[in-house]
Amino acid sequence: MLSTRGLTIRFGGHTAVDNVSADFHAGQLTVIVGPNGAGKTTYFNLMSGQLPATSGQVLLRGEDITGSGPAARTRQGIGRAFQLTNLFPHLSVHENVRLAVQARAGAGMKLWSIWSSHKELIERAEHYLQRVSLGARRDTPVAALSHGDKRKLEVAILLALEPEVMMFDEPTAGMSVDEVPVVLDLIHQVKAERNKAVLLVEHKMDVVRALADRIIVLHHGALVADGEPAAVMSSAIVQEAYLGTAQAAAQGAAIHD
Ligand SMILES: Nc1ncnc2c1ncn2[C@@H]1O[C@H](COP(=O)(O)OP(=O)(O)OP(=O)(O)O)[C@@H](O)[C@H]1O
């Protein structure tokens, strides 16, 4: 579904992502891990188009999209849950999701088609709100939501856009303990549909264990491990560089932080 080939970005003399090649398949959830500053977010930014690559390629279904900006990539099927930067704070929860549903339906500027299918758009937005357990908050302005509810709303918006590639940046960061299972269940459901490539940047080992089909490890911008979770997590490089000791790993310590 999505591939990178020799993907590299340099900031001045610093190579933040260094020649990374990887393939992300439909029905597979890949977690990208690594210490602070390893290049995980920058790699995400290169794939979603927020940053231009210094060299290398990003391919979507085999097509080279390296030259496309972020909006074009979203239209082409790469969806990303940002950390609360793509919400309209003064619109209601329902309106935020409805805009995403409209964008997906291509109804954005065509008033006639908005009116002709208005009821359907509302129902679809309602459906996504129910999926993230935000139905009761439908009329609340986004600015008044708790942090956890904002994160759930982001997931609803991402679902509404129906992308083929779904990228999550620490989806449970800042959530209370009782909110985390809602989001993890949703990501499980998306994965179970088996038609999307799901990518996650995640620090929490329990989340990694619960969700990962595959783990990629970045270190100083380079890909240093790529494989099944058990093999990658028990590999010497991960044990020593990221978990400190095998005992820390067994105790479920975070990779960092
Ligand atoms: N716009 C930029 N200009 C200069 N340096 C940058 C820029 N963006 C990222 N970097 C540098 O690139 C490196 C990788 O940063 P990045 O945020 O991708 O790491 P990360 O693995 O996501 O870290 P964290 O786990 O702390 O979020 C860091 O050394 C960072 O300082």
TrEMBL record:
GO terms for cellular component: plasma membrane. GO terms for molecular function: ATP binding; ATP hydrolysis activity. PROSITE patterns: ABC_TRANSPORTER_1, ABC_TRANSPORTER_2. It comes from the Bacteria. InterPro entries: AAA+_ATPase, ABC_AA/LPS_Transport, ABC_transporter-like_ATP-bd, ABC_transporter-like_CS, P-loop_NTPase. Keywords: ATP-binding, Cell membrane, Membrane, Nucleotide-binding, Transport. Residues 2-245 form the ABC transporter domain. SUPFAM superfamilies: P-loop containing nucleoside triphosphate hydrolases. PANTHER family: ABC TRANSPORTER ATP-BINDING PROTEIN, CONSERVED COMPONENT OF ABC TRANSPORTER FOR NATURAL AMINO ACIDS-RELATED. This is ATP-binding cassette domain-containing protein. It comes from Pseudoduganella guangdongensis. The lineage of its organism: Bacteria, Pseudomonadati, Pseudomonadota, Betaproteobacteria, Burkholderiales.
